[in-house]
Design brief:
Length: about 525
C-alpha cells in the first residue's frame, strides 16, 4: 500500500517563517514595512533588468515549446487520456491563476493609466491619446507574460512528472541538468521556499479580496459595521469555503466552482458589451489596444528606463513581474495536475495563449467603458476611487449599468467564487507538496490528507486578515517581490532543463518503447 506521511522538511520551515512574519506584522508593522520597503527599493534599482529579461525569456520559451517539434509530446504517454474536458480545463486554469485580480483591477488599473500615464509615454493624462494608449500597458501586465510565468516551468515539470515518473516537486525541473541530485533532500527545502513565496503572494491577494469585499459591502449596502469586523467575517467565510472545496478533491468541488465562476465572468462580460455603452467603441478599443500591445510588446517588455528613470517601470512593471513570479512555480505546479492526456502544444495554448486572449477582451471591455464614461464627463467612478480606494472601482462601475441592483449582489458572489477557486487550488498544491509517499507515482488527485489542507487553508486565510488588520500587508507584498528574484531564477533554470529534456525527450520518456515516437 502506498503510505503517506508528512514531509516535515517541507512543512515546518514555511509554516514557522510565515508565523514569524505574521507576529512581527501584528506587533510592529511599521518596522516590518520600513525594512521591506528598503529591500524592495534595492531590488527595483538593481534587479529590474533581470525581471524584464527573465520574464520575456519565459514567454519565448513557451512559444518555442508550443510550436517546435516537442509540441507533439503527449503528457502521460501516447495512450494517455485527458481527465476533464477542454472547457473545464480552461475554467480551472484561468480561475486558479488570477481570478481575484481581474475583478479587482479591470476598472481601477485602466483608469489609473489613463489619468497618470508613464512619464515617457509622450502624452498627458486624461487626454484622448491617454485613452487610446492606457490599455496597452494593462495588457502587458495581464496577458501573455504573466501566463507564461505560470506555464513555462510547469510544462517542463509536467513532462518529467507524467512521462518520466519523477516526483511532484519544483526541484524536479532541475533533473535534466543535475540528475538525481535534484531529487535528493534538497528538493524539500526548495519546495519549502516556494511555499513561503506563494503564501506571501497569496496573502496579499487574499488581503485585496477581503478588502474589496468589505469595502464593497459598505459602499453598496451602507453597512454600519466596522471594516475590521467585516473583514474578519469575510476572511472566515473564505477560509471555510476554500478548505471545504479543496478537501472535496480536484475533480469534484474544484472543477464545479471553477466552471461556475467562469460562467459568471462571461455573464458580466456579455452584459457590459451589450449595455455598458457604445459597442462600436468597445470593439474598436479591443482591436486597437491589441494592435498597440503587440506592436510594443518586445520594446516595452524589455524597457528598464536606463536613462529616463521616471520610476514607472520599477513601480508598475517590475512590481507586477515580482508579484506574478512569486506565484509562478506553485500555480504552475497545480496546473501540472491538469495536464495528463494533453500534448505540450495543447498545454501551452490552454495555459498561456487562450487565457491571454480572454484577458485581452475582459480588460479592454471594462477598461474602455470606464474610460469612455470619464471622457464623457461622468466622474462617478473616479470620485468613488478617490474616496474609497481602488477596492471600490468595480462596484462603482456597476452602478453605471442598467439593473445595478441585481448586478452588484451577483458581483459579490462572483468575487467569492473567484477567491475560493484561487485559494483551493493553492491549498491542494501546497498540501500535496508537504506529503511524502512510499511510491511517488504520477497521479492527479487525492494525495494529501484533509488535515494538511485545513492547516494550510487557515494559515493562508488568517495571514491575510492579520496583515490587513495590522497594516503589514504591503510589507509582505514586498517580501514576495524580493524573493521573486529567486523564484524567477528557479523558473529560468527549469526552462534550461526543459530545453535539454525536450530536445532529447526519447532519453527521458519512460512511457515510450524503444522504437516508439509521438
Amino acid at each position: 500500500m502506498n503510505q503517506k506521511h508528512v514531509n516535515w522538511l517541507t512543512f515546518l520551515p514555511p509554516a514557522i517563517a510565515l508565523g514569524c512574519i505574521i507576529a512581527v506584522g501584528a506587533l510592529v508593522p511599521k518596522a516590518l514595512d520600513n525594512s521591506m520597503a528598503a529591500l524592495l527599493d534595492w531590488v527595483n534599482h538593481n534587479c529590474d533588468w533581470f525581471y524584464c529579461l527573465g520574464m520575456f525569456l519565459l514567454m519565448v520559451f513557451c512559444l518555442w515549446a508550443a510550436f517546435g517539434k516537442c509540441g507533439k509530446i503527449r503528457l502521460g504517454g501516447k495512450d494517455a487520456k485527458p481527465e476533464m474536458s477542454f472547457w473545464k480545463w480552461f475554467c480551472v486554469v484561468l480561475t486558479s491563476g488570477m481570478a481575484v485580480g481581474i475583478t479587482y483591477w479591470c476598472v481601477a488599473e485602466p483608469l489609473s493609466y489613463f489619468q497618470t500615464p508613464p512619464g515617457y509615454a509622450g502624452y498627458e493624462g486624461g487626454t484622448i491619446e491617454a485613452a487610446e494608449g492606457a490599455l496597452r500597458y494593462v495588457l502587458l501586465h495581464w496577458t501573455l507574460i504573466p501566463f507564461a510565468c505560470f506555464t513555462a516551468g510547469a510544462v517542463v515539470i509536467a513532462f518529467l512528472y507524467w512521462n518520466c515518473k519523477k516526483p511532484f516537486s519544483i526541484s524536479t525541473g532541475f533533473y535534466p541538468l543535475i540528475g538525481e541530485k535534484a531529487l535528493g533532500g534538497s528538493r524539500y527545502l526548495v519546495n519549502a521556499l516556494c511555499i513561503f513565496c506563494l503564501c506571501c503572494g497569496l496573502g496579499t491577494t487574499l488581503g485585496l479580496a477581503v478588502d474589496q469585499m468589505s469595502v464593497g459591502l459598505q459602499y453598496t449596502m451602507g453597512l454600519n459595521i466596522s471594516k475590521d469586523v467585516l473583514a474578519f467575517i469575510v476572511c472566515v467565510g473564505f477560509a471555510a469555503i476554500g478548505i471545504l472545496v479543496a478537501c472535496s478533491g480536484l475533480h469534484k468541488g474544484v472543477t464545479y466552482v471553477s466552471t461556475a465562476n467562469m460562467y459568471l465572468f462571461l455573464f458580466f462580460l456579455g452584459f457590459t458589451l451589450l449595455f455598458g455603452g457604445n459597442l462600436h467603441t468597445i470593439l474598436g478599443s479591443i482591436i486597437t489596444s491589441t494592435g498597440k500591445y503587440l506592436g510594443f510588446l518586445i520594446p516595452e517588455a524589455l524597457n528598464t528606463e536606463p536613462y529616463t528613470q521616471s520610476g514607472w517601470v520599477a513601480n508598475q512593471t517590475v512590481f507586477y513581474w515580482g508579484w506574478w513570479v512569486a506565484f509562478g512555480p506553485m500555480v504552475g505546479l497545480f496546473q501540472v495536475k491538469l495536464a495528463k492526456g494533453r500534448t505540450v502544444r495543447e498545454y501551452i495554448l490552454v495555459n498561456m495563449i487562450v487565457p491571454g486572449i480572454f484577458l485581452t477582451i475582459w480588460m479592454c471591455t471594462f477598461g474602455s467603458t470606464a474610460i469612455s464614461y470619464t471622457l464623457a464627463g461622468n466622474t462617478s467612478i473616479t470620485d468613488a476611487i478617490a474616496s474609497w480606494g481602488s477596492s471600490v472601482a468595480f462596484f462603482a462601475f456597476l452602478k453605471n449599468l442598467p439593473l445595478s441592483v441585481i448586478l452588484i449582489p451577483v458581483a459579490l458572489i462572483t468575487m467569492i467564487f473567484s477567491i475560493v477557486t484561487q485559494t483551493e487550488a493553492e491549498i491542494l498544491t501546497v498540501a500535496d507538496m508537504c506529503v511524502a509517499t512510499d511510491e511517488e507515482l504520477a497521479k492527479s488527485d487525492n494525495m494529501a490528507p484533509a488535515w494538511i489542507k485545513v492547516i494550510w487553508g487557515l494559515i493562508m486565510s488568517f495571514m491575510a486578515y492579520i496583515l490587513l488588520y495590522s497594516g503589514g500587508l504591503a510589507a509582505v507584498q514586498n517580501i514576495s517581490i524580493i524573493i521573486g528574484v529567486l523564484m524567477l531564477l528557479i523558473l529560468l533554470v527549469t526552462c534550461a532543463g526543459g530545453i535539454k529534456a525536450f530536445r532529447n525527450y526519447k532519453e527521458y520518456d519512460v512511457t515510450l518503447e524503444e522504437d516508439e515516437d509521438y
